[in-house]
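Morning!

This is the sequence you dropped in the shared folder:
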Amino acid sequence: MSGKINSAGAKSGIIGTTELDYEEGTWTPSVVGGSLTISSTYRAIYIKVGNIIHIQSYMVFNSNGAGTGL
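The structure's back. Tokens below.
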């Protein structure tokens, strides 16, 4: 799988004496190779705090029945 960022809302703030690097937005997942296709994406978001990025998505897949997966 791969993805493309659709929108990003960069935010930053200060906690104590440390600057907070925070960003959140949406992304579009896609399947690269294989027999799967994405029929529906209900939610695809990411949250970045510092150098850690958390991605989350809920997708429905279609397959041609070849028995291959992600």
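Headline: The longest strand covers residues 2-15.

More detail when I'm at my desk.
O.
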